[in-house]
Amino acid sequence: MAPTVSSAAVPFSAIERRLACYLRALWGRPPVLRDAGRRARVSIVAGAIRMPEVLRAETVEGIALHRAAAAHAAAHLVHSAHRFPLAKLRPIQVAIVSLIEDARIERLAWQDLPGLRRLWLPFHVARPEAIPNATSLMARLARALIDPDYQDLDGWVAKGRELFEAHRARLDDPSISREIGTLLGNDLGQMRMQFDYGRYLVEPVYRDDNAFLWEFPENPSTPLPETEPEAVQAGTVTLETDSTIEGDRADQSPDGARREISPPQAVPATEVPDGPPHRYPEWDYVIGVHRPAWCTVRERRPESGDTRAIDEILSRREEVVARVTRLVRSAQVGHAARLRRQVEGNDLDLDAAIVAMADVRAGRTPSQRVYQRPGRIRRDLAVLWLLDLSRSTNDVVPGTGETILALARAATAVVAEAITAADDSFALHGFDSSGREDVGYYRFKDFDEPYAEAARARLAAITGRRSTRMGAALRHAGHLLSERRAARKLIVLVTDGAPHDIDVHDRWYLALDAKRAVEEQRRAGSATFCVSLDPGADAYVTRIFGAGNYLVLDHLRRLPEKLALVYLRWAAA
Amino acid sequence: MSQPHPIGQYLIRAEPYYRPTGDEVELYRAAYAVRMPMMLKGPTGCGKTRFVEYMAWHLGRPLITIACHEDMTASDLVGRHLLDATGTRWQDGPLTLAVRFGAICYLDEIVEARQDTTVVLHPLADARRMLPLEKKGELVEAHTDFQLVISYNPGYQSIIKDLKQSTKQRFGALDFGWPPRDAEIEIVVHESGVTADLAGRLVSVGERARNLKGHGLDEGLSTRMLVYAGALIAQGVEPLAACRAALVGPVTDDPDIRDALDAVIKTFF
C-alpha cells in the first residue's frame, strides 16, 4: 500500500535538533541521528539512528511520527544489547522474532517512561476484522502487545499475546523474543500463510527495519557492516525492500553525514618559516615534568584572500550580525555601578558628604565631589580569539554542506564585526602544527591593528591543514596576551576536536599538556575558554579547560549566534 | 520595658522544612562547633539557603542573610557613618551586626560581589576572627557564636568572576547537588502539597530535563522549580500548563529545547 501523502509531513532536517534534545533528555546519552535520505523506514547502523528525510503515517501528523520513530530506535539502542544469530530461521520467523523484540523493548521503555506508550499507540491501527494474511496478523499481534484494550479473537494473535505476557517477568532477557518469535513463526508457517519477504515492510511505520538486530552469517563475530542494510544480502534474507523507493538504490553513499577522520599529514619541509622560533616547554604527564624548550612555535605570515568572501558571509547573515552587534553594544559600556565622589549627580554620596562635613567642622576646605550617580564602569577586556586550523576542520558539517572551517570563519567574521563595534581590544590568531618542531602561528588581526580590509582578507584565506598541538599554541597566545595591559584577559579557543599531532600517539599526552597550559595561563592572569565544535567533546574538554569553561556546540548551524553570546557572557562579566 | 535585642528579629522562630540528603547536617554541626567558615556549593534552587536557615534554627542562632551583588561595597557589609542633627553617627552594617552579636552571617552568591569587597571577610574567616572597622577606628572581635557562611554556584559563574584562592581556602565546603529521587519527591510533596504520584512525575521530568544541561540548557531544572510546578498543580492548574509555566518558560526561549522539554513533560503526564 502506498503511503498516504500528507501535507503535514515534516522533513527530518527541520527537526533534527529537537529530536536530538528529546532523546538526550529521555535517555541522558548523546544520540547519534543521521539523515538517511529517501527511505521508507528508520534503520540503526553502528549505533547511529538513521532517519528518513520524510516519514508519513495516515493517523498521526507532524513531528509526533519522527518522535515516535526516534524513541523506538533509542529504546532499541538501550535495551537490544545483543544480536540474534540468523542460524536456520526462516524469513517469517526472523520477522516475528523482530516483532516480539520490538514489543519487548517498547514495554521496557514505557515502564520507565509511561508517555512513550501514548506516543506509539496511535500508530497501531490494525483491526481485528482485517483479512488474515501474514502481514495483517503480524500488525494485529503488534497492536495486541502494546494495547491492552485491543480485542482480537484470532487464535494466533491470542497465543502471541498470552506467550508474551507469560514471559513478563523475564522482559530483561532478549532471548524470550527469540523463543516466542520462533514458536509463533512456526505456527504461521503451518497455517500456510504466504509471506513475501520482498514486499514486507515493518509495521507500524515508526518502527525501524530491525536489520541491526541480526547477526549475518558471513561475518558472525562482527557487527553489521556500515552499508545500507538492503545491501547486506544475507542469503535469502533482506529485511527491508520497498518497491516504492527502488529509485534510490543507487544512493549508496555510506553515511554522507559522517565526519571522516582526516589523518594529519606532514607538510613538506620546503616551506620556509616566517618568524623567529619561540620555544616553549611541554608537560609530559608520564614523567611528571615539563620537557624544556620542547616545542617550537613559528609565526607564519598568513595569506590574504578575497574580502568579498567575508562580505558575503556577513550579508547572508545580516540579521545575525545586527542582533549580535546590538547585544554587544548594549553590554559595551560594562556593568552598572554607582559612580561615587562625582562633582555632580542625582544623589548625595553619603560617605563623601560626611567627610566633607567633617572637613567643614575641622576648618578644612571640603571637597566638592560629594555626589553620586548611577553609571557604568567600562570593561577593560582583551580577547584573543584563537582558531584551530587543523585538517579536520575541512570536514563537512552534517546537514549544511559547509565545512567546519567555513562555519568557524563565518562565526569569527560575525563576532569580529560585533567586537569591533564594541571597541574592545581583540586579536584574531590561528594555529596548526606538524610535530613539536613545527607549530605554526598566524596573526590574522593583531591587538593594535584595526579590523579592516587587510585583516578581513587574511580571515578569508584561512585553511585547515596539519594538526592540533594545543598546548604550545596556548602558551604562545598567553605570552602575547601577557604583553597587553588589560584588567581582564581572555583566550577563546575555537576547536573541533581533541589535540593531536603526528609525532604523538598517546591520546592523553597532548590533552594533559593543554590542560597544563590552561593552568599556566590562568596563573599568569589570562582565562581560557573553549568553544568545541565536536559534539562528543565533553570528556576531554572538561579535563582540559575545567567545568564551566567550555561550550560544546550542540548545533553547529547556530554557531555564529552562540559564539557571540559566549563572548558576551565573558565580556560582560 | 527592655530594649529589644538588636538581632532578635533575625532569629528563626519556626522550624524550616529541610530534608537532609546526606551527612550535611552532622558536618555542618561539627563545623559550627569549631566556628569554621563554610562554603555551600551547588546549583541554584537545590536547597542551600533553606539548609542554612534550617541549621540556624537548629543551632538556635540568628541568621543574617546578605544577597551579594556586583555593586556592593565593603561599606554595605561593615557599615557607614550617617549624618544626624548633632553630627555623624556610625551605623553597623549587617556583617558587623552579626560579628558583634553572634549571628550566622550568610552571604548569598558571594561571587557576585567584587573581589575588593570580599577581602573584608579575610580577617573574619581565619584564626583572627576579627573585623577591623577602618572608618571608625574600631576592631570588632567576633562574638563566640558568630559564623560566616557563603554560597557559591560553581556552574554558571564566569571564569573571570571567581573567588580568589585566598578567599576560597578560608572555608570548608559542603557540596550540594540535586537530591536523590526519593528525597526530591518527598520535598516536592511537602512543599507543594501534591500527591506522591504527581511529585514522582514532576521529579522524573526534572531528572530527564537535567540531561540537557550543557546541551541547550545552562542549568538543570531546580528542585525549587519542581516545587513551583507542584504548587500550581495543587492550585488546580492542569499539569501540562503548570509544567510549561513553571519548568519550561523560565529556563529557555529556544524553540527546539522548548519542544523537547514539552515532549518530556508529555512522557510523564
Could you characterize the architecture of this molecule?
The complex is a heterodimer of chains A (573) and B (269). Chain A is of the alpha/beta class. Chain A is built from 16 helices and 16 strands. In chain A, the strands form four sheets. An eight-stranded mixed beta sheet of chain A has the order 6-7-13-12-11-14-15-16, sandwiched between helices. The N terminus of chain A is likely disordered. With 269 residues, chain B is an alpha/beta fold. Chain B has two domains: 168 residues, 3-Layer(aba) Sandwich (Rossmann fold), CATH 3.40.50.300; 88 residues. In chain B, the strands form three sheets. Chain B has a five-stranded parallel beta sheet, with helices on both faces. In chain B, a hairpin with a 4-residue loop joins strand 6 and strand 7. Classes of the chains: A alpha/beta (573), B alpha/beta (269). The interface between A and B is large, with 44 and 35 residues.
Mind describing the biggest β-sheet of chain A?
8 strands, mixed
Radius of gyration of chain A: 31 Å
SSE order of chain B in H/E notation?
A: HEHEHEEHEHEEEHEHHHHH
Briefly, what CATH class of the largest domain in chain A? Alpha Beta
- Computed over alpha carbons, the radius of gyration of chain B is 21 Å
Largest sheet of chain B: 5 strands, parallel
Assigned CATH architecture of the largest domain in chain B:
3-Layer(aba) Sandwich
> Which pair has the most extensive contact?
A-B, 44 and 35 residues
Low-confidence stretches of chain A: 1-7, 219-273
Oligomeric state as shown? heterodimer
How many DSSP helices of chain A? 16
Would you tell me which CATH topology of the largest domain in chain A applies? Rossmann fold
What's the CATH class label of the largest domain in chain B? Answer: Alpha Beta
Structural class of chain B: alpha/beta
What is the number of E strands of chain A? 16
Quote the average pLDDT of chain A. Answer: 78
| Total number of domains of chain B | 2
CATH superfamily membership of the largest domain in chain B, which one?
P-loop containing nucleotide triphosphate hydrolases
Can you identify the CATH superfamily of the largest domain in chain A? von Willebrand factor, type A domain
Number of helices of chain B: 11
